[in-house]
Amino acid sequence: MDEFEALLKESFEIDTPEEGTVVKGRVIAIEAGQAIIDVGYKMEGRVDLKEFANPGEAPSINVGDEVEVYLDRVENARGEAVISRDKARREEAWDRLEKAYANETRVEGAIFGRVKGGFTVDLGGAVAFLPGSQVDVRPVRDAGPLMGIKQPFQILKMDRRRGNIVVSRRAILEESRAEQRAEVISNLSEGQTVDGVVKNITEYGAFVDLGGVDGLLHVTDMAWRRVNHPSEILSIGETVKVQVIKINKETHRISLGMKQLQSDPWDAVERAYPLGSVHKGRVTNITDYGAFVELEAGVEGLVHVSEMSWTKKNVHPGKIVSTSQEVDVMVLEIDSAKRRVSLGLKQTQRNPWEVFAENHPVGSAIEGEVKNITEFGLFIGLENDIDGMVHLSDLSWDQRGEEAIQNYRKGDVVKAAVTEVDIEKERISLSIKALGDDTFSDAVDGVKRGSVITVSVTAIEDGGVEVEYNGMKSFIRRSDLARDRADQRPERFQVGDKVDVRVTNVDAKTRRLGLSIKAREIAEEKEAVEQYGSSDSGASLGDILGAALKGSDRN
């Protein structure tokens, strides 16, 4: 009995396949969109026809075909085996994919659906996830043309227990692209001229396809002239002729140039633009320190802010010229090695100080508006936006400069005489008082040091007396009122007294006369001694002075 049970059990184990395994079967009929499959062991099952179709293809199955299916359960409620072609293909695919993943080999699949963040890929029974970033080397806006097409993929990650597979199409493209780039680059050499197609344009240049490899055409290598944006001379899809400037074998980066295929305009700059010559140019760029002017395509010069205007100092260049404006400039300096041209804008116009000196010689009168008042004088606005200065000392004959300047305000129109024009230092000196009468000079005309004049006493003070001569006031100090100390008393004089005094100093700058009664008396005594006696004649000083006085009375 025990042996019979063992044989029966063994018979069941052999005849009945294990659930959850892949078994072979034969298609015995196709009906109602399903294939009826005999899996042996007196068991039949049904499989939807769509499970025999690859994504995007019609199902390929016929009666009599032998297929592998996955046995879920031996018998369902209808007495049929529950089988699946998809699960069979999946199990087969996982075995195959795990080997490919371990060997880092490519697998074939087809994109058949779109999900959040990417796409789904059928890898011959197993479904994998293709992230959007792994579709292509560049972002793909429309993945429609890629759907349903069998193509290679690289497995990035897989987890059979969780049923997760992540694949990349980009890795395949980059690998083939690298091979293609290496082949193309091996056929290129620096200095070679090739044709390419503009694929992309950026702020700093354009990428040109040289037949499987891209090269960068920098904006500075597009033309000898200044190019503000590559789109000025290039458009996407355009075929251009370029020269290979540099190849980096390690990074596979290629630098290209267009201007290198044209003649360099700087080769003829010194000949075409001699120093001191004047040319017409166009303002291409304005900075804080000047303006760039294009003389011809590829040749630009800088007009420094200091060379822009004779009169407008410390002004931004943008207030003198504007972009695209045509201007006349003079060539000041050329440095071919550094590819620099220094230009001058003001040199094309006459120096306004030279013009002023020609039209207004020293001594001539001018009229202008007070532009500014400073602690040392007035600035007067003149023709051609230049200024002249009236120093404090040139404001008035009769007042001190600090007092006289209080009589003026900004905007006042004044007349003045030109006293000096310094063209090199760009200075014009003016004098307001030069146009008026010099009362001091008129009053002291003919008076010099040592002269004896008659003055009138106008005031008595403790320190001396104030006197007047031809309308000019002067002061005689107490110590100069008499030779003898006892007579050096201001109170011995009265207002209106006429007094003879000796001139000790004529100061035109301070407009003062130095006067002294004491100096007159000493001079008279000396003269008397010389005329009427000497130190060894025996005559006393009283006798000499008496004789001098008598002689004076006789005269």
UniProtKB/TrEMBL annotation:
<dbReference type="InterPro" id="IPR003029">
    <property type="entry name" value="S1_domain"/>
</dbReference>
<feature type="domain" description="S1 motif">
    <location>
        <begin position="363"/>
        <end position="433"/>
    </location>
</feature>
<dbReference type="Pfam" id="PF00575">
    <property type="entry name" value="S1"/>
</dbReference>
<keyword id="KW-0687">Ribonucleoprotein</keyword>
<keyword id="KW-0677">Repeat</keyword>
<feature type="domain" description="S1 motif">
    <location>
        <begin position="450"/>
        <end position="518"/>
    </location>
</feature>
<feature type="domain" description="S1 motif">
    <location>
        <begin position="191"/>
        <end position="259"/>
    </location>
</feature>
<feature type="domain" description="S1 motif">
    <location>
        <begin position="276"/>
        <end position="346"/>
    </location>
</feature>
<feature type="domain" description="S1 motif">
    <location>
        <begin position="104"/>
        <end position="170"/>
    </location>
</feature>
<dbReference type="InterPro" id="IPR000110">
    <property type="entry name" value="Ribosomal_bS1"/>
</dbReference>
<dbReference type="GO" id="GO:0003729">
    <property type="term" value="F:mRNA binding"/>
</dbReference>
<keyword id="KW-0694">RNA-binding</keyword>
<dbReference type="GO" id="GO:0006412">
    <property type="term" value="P:translation"/>
</dbReference>
<feature type="domain" description="S1 motif">
    <location>
        <begin position="20"/>
        <end position="86"/>
    </location>
</feature>
<dbReference type="InterPro" id="IPR012340">
    <property type="entry name" value="NA-bd_OB-fold"/>
</dbReference>
<protein>
    <recommendedName>
        <fullName>30S ribosomal protein S1</fullName>
    </recommendedName>
</protein>
<dbReference type="GO" id="GO:0022627">
    <property type="term" value="C:cytosolic small ribosomal subunit"/>
</dbReference>
<keyword id="KW-0689">Ribosomal protein</keyword>
<comment type="similarity">
    <text>Belongs to the bacterial ribosomal protein bS1 family.</text>
</comment>
<dbReference type="GO" id="GO:0003735">
    <property type="term" value="F:structural constituent of ribosome"/>
</dbReference>
<comment type="function">
    <text>Binds mRNA; thus facilitating recognition of the initiation point. It is needed to translate mRNA with a short Shine-Dalgarno (SD) purine-rich sequence.</text>
</comment>
<dbReference type="InterPro" id="IPR050437">
    <property type="entry name" value="Ribos_protein_bS1-like"/>
</dbReference>
<dbReference type="InterPro" id="IPR035104">
    <property type="entry name" value="Ribosomal_protein_S1-like"/>
</dbReference>
